[in-house]
Amino acid sequence: MPSVKAKPAKTAEPRSRDADRSQLAILLAARDEFAQHGLGGARVDRIAERADVNKRLIYYYFTSKDELFLAVLEQAYADIREAENQLHLRDMPPAQAIQRLTQFTWEYYIAHPEFLTLLNSENLHQGRHLAMSGRVRDMNSPLIQTLAEILERGRSEGLFRGGIDPIQLYVSIAGMAYFYLSNNHTLSAIFGRDLMTPKARHERLSHMCDVILGYVLRN
Amino acid sequence: MPSVKAKPAKTAEPRSRDADRSQLAILLAARDEFAQHGLGGARVDRIAERADVNKRLIYYYFTSKDELFLAVLEQAYADIREAENQLHLRDMPPAQAIQRLTQFTWEYYIAHPEFLTLLNSENLHQGRHLAMSGRVRDMNSPLIQTLAEILERGRSEGLFRGGIDPIQLYVSIAGMAYFYLSNNHTLSAIFGRDLMTPKARHERLSHMCDVILGYVLRN
Amino acid sequence: MPSVKAKPAKTAEPRSRDADRSQLAILLAARDEFAQHGLGGARVDRIAERADVNKRLIYYYFTSKDELFLAVLEQAYADIREAENQLHLRDMPPAQAIQRLTQFTWEYYIAHPEFLTLLNSENLHQGRHLAMSGRVRDMNSPLIQTLAEILERGRSEGLFRGGIDPIQLYVSIAGMAYFYLSNNHTLSAIFGRDLMTPKARHERLSHMCDVILGYVLRN
Amino acid sequence: MPSVKAKPAKTAEPRSRDADRSQLAILLAARDEFAQHGLGGARVDRIAERADVNKRLIYYYFTSKDELFLAVLEQAYADIREAENQLHLRDMPPAQAIQRLTQFTWEYYIAHPEFLTLLNSENLHQGRHLAMSGRVRDMNSPLIQTLAEILERGRSEGLFRGGIDPIQLYVSIAGMAYFYLSNNHTLSAIFGRDLMTPKARHERLSHMCDVILGYVLRN
DNA sequence: CATGAATGAGTGTTCATTCAT
DNA sequence: AATGAATGAACACTCATTCAT
């Protein structure tokens, strides 16, 4: 069975002469650093340390901190899209599909907290990195198309109410999850209650499903 | 021998009005700067410029950048609480109160975009400023109490479903507004559609009310 | 007897709380550093060291390396103009005035080798600093005007030939001195002869006077 | 089976013509880069780009930036010497030879502005590259010898004044041209007059000839 | 109450150069 | 003969903060 990698599988590779590996290490380290400190608070030095590469190499491959941030952002979008594609919502009954999407969104955000802070950073900077991205169009989530189809199916089956904008619905699902998780610290402080206990998390998901289905379902 | 200082030597004043004026100017300037650039990206120099005061004065009154940030944060919470108190939701029929709250949240966030970014910054820093605040407890929104009463009233009148957690509901309302507005730039880029036109804003509020009332109302 | 300085003559001044002194120290240190290494080769760190001030202070007063260079350049021009003004060429007989100017130019360049390298740097950068200077116009050497008058006087007295452009003449005098001194190293290497011995210097000045007077004088 | 390589497989060639080509490309690119930015401001990366070769190749052939600069410098001297040799001043009447030399110097500097900046750079660095050159001696311009002969011929014919040092004369001719051209930017700024118009250039050459011949010729 | 002067520790970025093939 | 990957030392410039009055 042949290796998938294009690179010849040399025995005993020199530890650090691997362009792909270096690039990936930088990307992952940068993702974590940007997620933890935001774009402004992230330190290129720290990224180099995390990735265990020479700082200069970051510039060799990514030109600047901003371009590195963009690369991280694009990767983050590529990742969530990939995960969405694995859901196969089209193969489910409409109500189940909506519930599955809600659950997925919730769980993906929990598993990938960096996604939330990366988006926050990009929005703080008014989306100027994404605006310069050649790959933004590819990010146009096909999920919206899928969601539209599910809503239409639900409606024609008499289950769902009509006139639901899939984008509005998607933003609502995401928003309910996002706000709770992204603002967890301030909310916990103000309400004086830990929002991240397993129980609290379970209740949140449950609530979200109730709200979304309560809205979508006829009656 | 009279004082050389230009400032009028008022006889009995609670220790200079200039002090208050400078302090307020700094606070407002800081709010804008932090909102625009985040905590990490904000520059003390720029705040001094915006407030038209000597940079040293900022330290004189607020000790450090972090304490200034906290002061801004506390002010932001005080402001929204003040606004919430003006709503008099208790005086309305339950369904109307819920709708009014939804609308208020939406409109307040639009009128005070700085509130969103300030919260984002604080959460990026894991709520550590709020944690040091002596006034957090005061921020425990009485709105939750009010909301609980409204929900109970609606339930006892047979209008609302039972078992609704007011905190969950509040977070959902806020989240649907917050996410749309705070992530406006990335969402607009990805969906290729301007989410901030008057029409789009109107539709969003309408959708939010539908979702929330669809959930709250029995049937 | 009152102090000329505007600043009150405090006894026991704190060693380093003197804005003027710091600024001047920076300017002098920068002049030497730029002269020695050129604009590109000059190091801000080294300037700070030479001036014995904190590096940050350089930016505090001069904003950037380029603006500092401009300040140095402007000072250099101000200095030579000041020296030219002391010559009182107008009070001399024409031939003597020309000779005096030649000698002055020669000696000023020798005493101020930094002037030559500063000009070389500025010209390497195509005069872009001077182009941004608000004070360029003030640098329009009144010497040219004086020279024109001297030439006219000499001509009307029947001593000088007519039709001499004072700018051309000035550039020739300066050029003969400048090239010899500025390119001293390459010339010495190529001709295999030290051009900077007292004797060689004396001969050069003598030659220059011969050439210039040989040209200017009728016959 | 023929070689795939585009390069013709010459049988007996002194080890590849590509090598020479790359070396020359580097040399020319370096000359332009050094001329434009000076030694300190020149970038090895940019030279590689200009020459369209891998940066590493520059080190392969020239060892270091400084040695490359020296190579460029030596080439520049070789070039001007070659051009001087084409003048055949010896075959002309003395006065014409002097005039021809003046004109040649002027025109060569205009056609080769890089020569001026290269020399400036080398002198800024106190001639330390040339000092290390094994070929400096070859640069000892035979022109000086020629010039001496011309001056002697002119003197013995009763045309020229005696006692003229050919080196002094050469430096004066070169200096009058060099200063005008090399310092063109600062001079233009200060005199507020474009020194590089065709008319201005013509006048300069004319003036130079007047000065030099006015000096050299008896009377 | 207010401020101009000053600073140590960093900040993203650059540069000539070397490594390994 | 040629090259993509990698690096240490710098570099211009910045920042929150303190000094001294």
UniProtKB/TrEMBL annotation, chains A, B, C, D:
The keyword Transferase does not apply. Residues 43-62 bind DNA. PROSITE patterns: HTH_TETR_2 (PS50977). Keywords: DNA-binding. InterPro entries: Homeodomain-like_sf, HTH-type_TetR-like_transc_reg, HTH_TetR, NicS_C, Tet_transcr_reg_TetR-rel_C_sf. Residues 20-80 form the HTH tetR-type domain. It comes from the Bacteria. The keyword DNA-binding applies. GO terms for molecular function: DNA binding. This is TetR family transcriptional regulator.
